[in-house]
Amino acid sequence: MAKRIRQFGVLLAGLTLLLLISACGKPVADSDALARAQQTGKIVWGVKADTRLFGLMNTKTGKIEGFEVDMAKALTKQILGQSGKAELTQITSDTRVPMLKAGNVDAVIGTMSITPDRQKVLNFSKSYFSAGQSLLVPKGSKIHSVKDLKQGTSVIGVQGSNSVDNIKKAAPAARVLQLADYSQAFTALKSHQGDALTTDNGILYGMSQQDPSYVVVGGTFTTEPYGIAMNKGQDRLTKAMNKALDQLDKNGTYERLLKKWFSDVPGFDVKEVHP
Amino acid sequence: MINIFTTNFGPLISGLGYTLLSSIIALVASLIIGTVFALLEISHKKWVRVIGKAYVEFIRNIPLLVITMAFYVIVPQFIVQMDGFTAGTIGLTIYTSAFIAETVRAGIGAVPVGQMEGARSNGLTYTQAMVQIVFPQAIKIVVPSLGNQFINLVKNSSVLAFVAGFDLMYQGKLIAAATFNTFDTYLVVGVLYLVVTMPMSYAMRYLEKHWSRA
């Protein structure tokens, strides 16, 4: 009996320790990120590595490439000067908020829509890209728009992206399957795990460009302004980001980068996404 | 932390249900498949032994996630449609069966050869001797390590989260993403896994003591 009580005691002690850890500890996330960046000469960016056109790992060179990666580099130079370095860290839709909160990254530029819920816990810059949610289906699919997602159909989404909440509202009868990242979600669509894949049109166009037997249908049914996310309270860095975004827009860098990545995407209108 | 649990009670409990269901199916199935391959591994015919050995070596040296993804992604494209829960449970079964095969084979090997020889010289066939004499003794020997495998199996069932299998880990990931409260969510998920695995751990310890006395 005494032994059992002791075992229980050990378990209890373990749990208490966990609770204590959760209650205390103030990480680097709350110190001024702009001051730190100026000191070290670099900004640590969270970027996507699974999203064509925005941020995708080039398996040949081992580097992440895309519109957002170029934007991150341009913004860093704008804020820290020509010697400023952009350090890139891979994030996914479900790791980006925890990584910001823990201070692993200073800012996230990763197809992240500005939403009221997210604004409660994060700071956002102004929008740098106006996307809208749409559907990707195999060519010849019976699904032509979000209205066709009736009882018995299933839609694939990505964990931690707000497109999942939107589709639950737009097509409440459809079953929603959430996968870890976009490459997995697209693979699942190819494996017939769902009837359609839903997320922002920019990302879907990238998939359609990669495999033309899949097409974007039905237009957009939401508007998704992408913003750069920073931890709550990083107001100085947020201001610097907004200023840098304005400067990039004025000196033509922004439009040049947009054209560089999106000009050969079928059905894509640069004016439509310029906020 | 309590807050996360009460506000997401439904999803968490349903996730726990799927985790338990998947674990129970995989436990029964992997025990059967594992035992069959263990018997193949100790067969007198060389080619049968090779089949058993090849299966075990092949499966136990591949990550569980890779096996599961194969069933989720490749099998539906070429063979038969299956959802994430099915793919995950099959992956879990096959993966665990390789370890169980090794465990059971070791158990049979630990039964003194005299037991088999004695049974055979008393007129029992190989099958009779194996089933009635050697196997019951072997099971008692391997209970502790089988227990380990079963506890691992419950924890490994979190692989379902990667193929949208609606299990506890999957729900945890969704709640963490929705509430942005990663730490507390995974803490709750961890405690719920403990609720399943701790009693298993104690039950195994009881069985171990009970059977070693008999």
UniProtKB/TrEMBL annotation, chain A:
Domain Ionotropic glutamate receptor C-terminal: 51-264
InterPro entries found in the cross-reference section: Bact_solute-bind_prot3, Iontro_rcpt_C, Solute-binding_3/MltF_N
A Pfam family of this chain: SBP_bac_3
Coiled-coil features, chain-numbered ranges: none
Residue span, Solute-binding protein family 3/N-terminal domain: 42-265
Alphabetical keyword list: Signal, Transport
NAD recorded as keyword: no
Signal sequence, renumbered to the chain: none
Entry protein name: Glutamate ABC transporter substrate-binding protein
From TrEMBL, chain B:
Main location: membrane
Name of this chain's protein: Amino acid ABC transporter permease
Keywords in alphabetical order: Cell membrane, Membrane, Transmembrane, Transmembrane helix, Transport
Source organism per UniProt: Lacticaseibacillus jixianensis
Chain ranges passing through the membrane: 20-40, 61-79
Pfam family, one: BPD_transp_1
Location of the protein in the cell: Cell membrane
PANTHER family: GLUTAMINE ABC TRANSPORTER PERMEASE PROTEIN GLNM-RELATED, MEMBRANE COMPONENT OF AMINO ACID ABC TRANSPORTER
Family matches, as InterPro entries: AA_ABC_transptr_permease_3TM, ArtM/GltK/GlnP/TcyL/YhdX-like, MetI-like, MetI-like_sf
Membrane topology: Multi-pass membrane protein
Classification via Gene3D superfamilies: MetI-like (1.10.3720.10)
Family note: Belongs to the binding-protein-dependent transport system permease family.
Ranges where the ABC transmembrane type-1 domain occurs: 16-204
